[in-house]
Specification:
With 235 residues, the chain is mostly beta strands. The chain folds into two domains: 142 residues, DNA Polymerase III, subunit A, domain 2 (DNA Polymerase III, Chain A, domain 2); 64 residues, no CATH class. It contains three helices and eleven strands.
Length: 235
């Protein structure tokens, strides 16, 4: 199935910037150098991972939007974020149309032969504004990234408010990953940090971050501490 959705500039920028922050930049695994988008129940959900964290965000779409799922490459997302007609103040009514064509389920290829782009599906975006004419439209199309996207949405806990056990006493987290969670904020909201509870996995459980609007969340995998880490003041 194929379809098209329309997003306002502010919503599209927030959605894609938040997902882009968690994509991998290691081309050895192309499928995670991408953002998976799912259109369902009048919302579009973006999810991305680089193996060490997961970002998931959603925004509403117009009622009646067709359900669907597609994978948009990191490069195409970056291009979209740079394709607006100037500032928001000059073009306040900008929107982006995102159209996708599903992968061909009957596509086959011989061993050692590349799969042609038509077999991977297609994603195209077009930036529109009432202040621009057809000659000034900004569009870009690219094949979907090949391969199944890992089901990382299953990693989120069912009940992050569970208080049945004590929280872990300490965690080692990459500060760059924590900084990137700022893209999950929307409006004037803040972020809620949920420390994992003690259990069989101990401090190696993922650290949960949720925005207070309930529209975005992230998981961050703790780092293993160095053997000789120092306590402040002892070095």
């Amino acid at each position: 199935m194929s379809g098209t959705i329309r997003l306002a500039r502010a919503e599209a920028e927030w959605l894609f910037r938040g997902a882009l922050a968690a994509t991998s930049d290691q081309d050895v695994t192309p499928i995670i150098c991408a953002v998976k988008l799912t259109v369902k129940n009048d919302r579009v959900t973006a999810i991305a991972t680089d193996r060490y964290r997961v970002h998931q965000l959603f925004v509403p779409v117009a009622p009646g939007a067709p359900d669907g799922e597609f994978v948009m490459s990191r490069r195409q997302v970056q291009r979209l974020l740079k394709s607006w007609h100037g500032s928001r103040s000059l073009f306040p009514d900008q929107v982006v149309d995102i159209a996708w064509e599903d992968r061909d389920p009957n596509a086959t290829t011989k061993v050692g032969m590349p799969v042609t782009p038509k077999h991977t599906g297609w994603v195209e975006f077009t930036v529109l504004s009432d202040l621009t004419d057809a000659a000034e439209l900004i569009s870009h199309g690219a094949p979907q990234v090949r391969g199944p996207y890992p089901p990382v949405e299953r990693l989120f806990p069912d009940d992050p408010s569970d208080q049945s056990t004590e929280p872990v006493s300490q965690m080692f987290l990459d500060p760059a990953f924590l900084a990137d969670t700022r893209y999950l904020r929307s409006g004037q909201g803040s972020l809620r940090f949920v420390v994992p509870r003690a259990g069989a996995k101990g401090s190696h459980q993922a650290f949960l971050v949720v925005n207070t609007e309930g529209t975005a969340r992230a998981l961050i995998q703790p780092q293993r501490p160095a053997r000789d880490w120092e306590v402040y003041g002892d070095a």
